[in-house]
């Protein structure tokens, strides 16, 4: 049998009938949660906040995605790194309280306990700085949304509690995010 475009299309259209269900059907996912082409689960800000205000950030630690809405309602989607374990993950509502370009980094006391070989301080701009080129400081002590120079971390459980983005992505989010932006980690 010769493989043709018609045969390919016919096979693709027949697949839901052979398997008994459509490939895009999602019986376990209730309500308005959608999956985009990259399989990120996305949310509607209205399901989590009463008003858009100066902007909203929702970081889904299961889907490893950050959604950012600006005050005019524009939505942007970014892949993230997330905490290594649920014990390191804080979930709930917070807000951006400070923004820093080329932030310096010092490990938290619990990080030093787990990793005593780590340096006590890394200055901003240093290529080994785990905060990358920008950081949004949250109202929770030690929690940040920041960049990373280690691009292998994105899409994985790899942080000690923070949400990490590619440096070019945190720079975009940083430029559009005023202090006071509402944040939810789920």
Automatic annotation (TrEMBL):
> Looking at the record's lineage, which domain of life comes first?
Bacteria
Keyword Transferase in record: yes
Q: Which residues belong to the signal peptide in this entry?
A: 1-25
Extract one GO cellular component term from the record: extracellular region
What Gene Ontology molecular-function terms does this entry list? Answer: glycosyltransferase activity; peptidoglycan L,D-transpeptidase activity
Q: Which Pfam families does the entry mention?
A: YkuD
Q: Which InterPro entries match?
A: LD-transpeptidase, LD_TPept_cat_dom, Transpep_catalytic_dom
Which biological process, per GO, is one annotated for this protein? regulation of cell shape
Is NADP given among the entry's keywords?
no
Give UniProt keywords alphabetically: Cell shape, Cell wall biogenesis/degradation, Glycosyltransferase, Hydrolase, Peptidoglycan synthesis, Plasmid, Signal, Transferase
UniProt pathway:
Cell wall biogenesis; peptidoglycan biosynthesis
L,D-TPase catalytic domain spans which residues?
Answer: 55-186
Q: State the family named in the UniProt similarity comment for this chain.
A: Belongs to the YkuD family.
**Name this polypeptide is given:** L,D-transpeptidase
Annotated organism of origin: Neotabrizicola shimadae
Lineage of the source organism? Bacteria, Pseudomonadati, Pseudomonadota, Alphaproteobacteria, Rhodobacterales
């Amino acid at each position: 049998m010769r493989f043709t475009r018609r045969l390919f299309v016919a096979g693709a259209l027949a697949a839901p009938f052979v398997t008994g269900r459509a490939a895009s059907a999602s019986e376990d996912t209730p309500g308005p949660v959608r999956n985009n082409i990259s399989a990120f689960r996305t949310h509607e800000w209205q399901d989590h906040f009463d008003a858009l205000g100066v902007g909203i950030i929702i970081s889904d630690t299961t889907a490893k995605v950050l959604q950012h809405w600006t005050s005019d309602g524009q939505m942007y989607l970014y892949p993230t790194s997330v905490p290594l374990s649920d014990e390191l993950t804080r979930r709930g509502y917070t807000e951006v309280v400070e923004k820093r370009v080329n932030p310096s980094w010092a490990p938290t006391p619990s990080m030093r306990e787990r990793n005593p070989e780590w340096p006590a301080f890394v200055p901003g701009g240093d290529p080994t700085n785990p905060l990358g080129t920008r950081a949004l400081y949250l109202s929770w002590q030690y929690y940040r949304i920041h960049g990373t120079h280690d691009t292998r971390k994105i899409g994985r459980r790899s942080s000690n509690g923070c949400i990490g983005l590619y440096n070019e992505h945190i720079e975009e989010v940083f430029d559009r995010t005023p202090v006071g932006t509402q944040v939810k980690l789920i």
